[in-house]
């Protein structure tokens, strides 16, 4: 079926996942829309760590996220992941994040409800983060640990979709419902293997990743629950800000 679907895809007219224009799966204009350096944003509910965004959540960013989440356009994750990877590189360049030789990056995707992830055919933010992690340049041979995405958080049932809720309502909606997955602390805290045995352990830099930040409530609650189990989040990085 997978191969058949692939063959059928080739025969069907292709439209851009960002804007719907016919002719290619990702058009030049949307590609240009995703260029640029990350910007610092200051959501109403401050998570207490720097918040960076690849750009305003509109145009190609919004189009691609909706195509991915609502219309099954899994290919839309690729340009979004590339934008995320470029932002990470820029933040490292600017000294906002440690260089990869010093600290591999662990991206923790925003928690999603299991039912929502199932409906969407997998967690889209996890997919974007994992692709972005694999897109970062290869390490020095002696520092083999690389960037990665770890699904460390979950959203307990009872949390509603936060669409349409104000900042205070979002905070109430999330209180106590974002939890740390079993085994996640070990995966986030330890020095990831691969380096020489005599090398000093390199503590990974944990970055919380989401598609969009609006009030900041999700990021703030996630940073808080991770801090409660001893995981210090270095920054929040989102594809777009409202
Ligand atoms: Zn387009």
From TrEMBL:
InterPro entries from the UniProt entry: ComF/GntX_DNA_util-trans, PRTase-like
Question: Do you know which Gene3D superfamilies this protein is assigned to?
Answer: 3.40.50.2020
Task: Identify the SUPFAM superfamilies for this entry.
Answer: PRTase-like
Q: What is this protein called?
A: ComF family protein
Q: Which organism is it from?
A: Tomitella cavernea
Q: What is the lineage of its organism?
A: Bacteria, Bacillati, Actinomycetota, Actinomycetes, Mycobacteriales
């Amino acid at each position: 079926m997978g191969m058949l679907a692939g063959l059928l895809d080739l025969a069907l007219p292709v439209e851009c996942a960002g804007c719907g224009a016919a002719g290619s799966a990702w058009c030049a204009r949307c590609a240009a829309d995703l260029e640029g350096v990350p910007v610092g944003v200051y959501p109403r509910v401050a998570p207490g760590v720097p918040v960076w965004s690849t750009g305003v959540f509109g145009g190609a960013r919004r189009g691609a996220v909706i195509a991915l989440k609502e219309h099954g356009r899994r290919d839309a994750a690729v340009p979004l992941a590339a934008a995320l990877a470029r932002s990470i590189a820029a933040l490292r360049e600017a000294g906002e994040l440690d260089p990869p030789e010093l600290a591999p990056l662990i991206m923790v995707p925003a928690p999603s409800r299991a039912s929502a992830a199932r409906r969407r055919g997998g967690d889209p933010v996890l997919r974007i983060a994992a692709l972005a992690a694999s897109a970062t340049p290869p390490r020095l041979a002696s520092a083999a640990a690389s960037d990665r995405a770890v699904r460390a958080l979950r959203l307990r049932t009872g949390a509603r979709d936060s669409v349409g809720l104000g900042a205070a309502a979002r905070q109430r909606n999330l209180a106590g419902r974002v939890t740390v997955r079993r085994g996640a602390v070990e995966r986030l805290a330890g020095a990831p293997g691969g380096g020489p045995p005599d090398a000093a352990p390199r503590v990974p830099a944990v970055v919380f990743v989401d598609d969009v930040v609006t009030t900041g409530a999700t990021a703030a609650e996630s940073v808080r629950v991770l801090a409660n189990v001893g995981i210090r989040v270095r920054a929040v990085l989102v594809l777009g800000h409202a």
